[in-house]
Amino acid sequence: METVSSIMTTDPITFSIPGTVSNAVNVLIKNKITGMPVIDSSGNYSGVITRRDIFSRPEETQASMITRKQRTVFQDTPIDEAARLMMLERRRHMIVLDGDKHVCGILTPHDFLRTIEKDHGSVLVKEVMDSITFPIWEQTPLPVIYKTMKMTGIFTYPVVDSSGNFKGLVTDRDFFDRIEIGLVRSENSQMLSEDDPWSWEGVRNVVSYFIEKNMIKIPDETVESITIHNPVVAHLNEKLQFAARRMRDGNYNQLPVISGRNGLEGILLDIDILSVFSKKHV
């Protein structure tokens, strides 16, 4: 049986505590990652910190306050067991430990896609759609969509016109990529340097932290201005092998799902596809 070691990202970037949220933000940005394992001063696993953890608790200044100690897996853990655990906890990052219980890898839903395509490709898209989908009107102001994301914990929305017709897709990344950013400073020290060329692009992906600190203003625009028009889609009755391949090739976390009769049907998230490893699909 295939194990976690065959699909995980090895030797992941880690963050040490004690440390500040500001420092964690810098590491996430500079390395263009969405989450990372946290270790203590002895090198022992302490939890996970992600962009969305920072999004949810922007008032915290110490990384330990938003670090989550979730369950881990080992290198020899079967991938179906790891997938079920990831789905159970609805977490996009799972840490892999070696025999000495030190961090040696990390998993995200994307790492399972090749196996899903190969071993579970005959499952239909409609069988694994499980997440609640809320359409957003294309004239919704950007401050409203920001608040909606923060309050619901849903970060992907199909965009519709006033007649309910599907117009495109908006995600938290698209939203943050369009925000205008000036020089950002923390309370005690300079947060980002004007000399760091990676900072200005990368910070947009964790920009909620700074929005809450009133360091960035959300543009007075509507969702229409950041909508991805003609996004790559999945079809309700198609086989999962094709949708998984599109996700893998395009590095997408989600695909809008459409049908010939009703148009938009919902959103297919990569974490929902992991349900193929549960008994109901075996």
| CATH C-level label of the largest domain | Alpha Beta
* H/E element sequence: EEHEEHEHEEHHEHEEHHHEHEEH
Average residue-wise pLDDT: 81
Quickly count the domains: 2
Q: Please state the overall shape, judged from the principal axes of the Cα atoms.
A: flat
Quote the distance from N terminus to C terminus: 14 Å
What does this structure look like?
By secondary structure, the chain is of the alpha/beta class. The protein folds into two domains: about 5-105, CBS-domain, CATH 3.10.580; about 125-175 and about 220-280, CBS-domain. The protein has helices at about 20-30, 50-55, 80-90, 115-120, 125-130, 140-150, 170-175, 200, 210, 240-250, 270-275, and strands at about 10, 15, 35-40, 45-50, 75, 95, 105, 135, 155-160, 165-170, 235, 255-260, 265-270. The protein has a four-stranded mixed beta sheet with strand order 1-7-6-5, with no helix packed on it. Helix 4 packs antiparallel against helix 10. The longest helix has 11 residues, at about 20-30. Residues about 180-195 have low confidence and may be disordered.
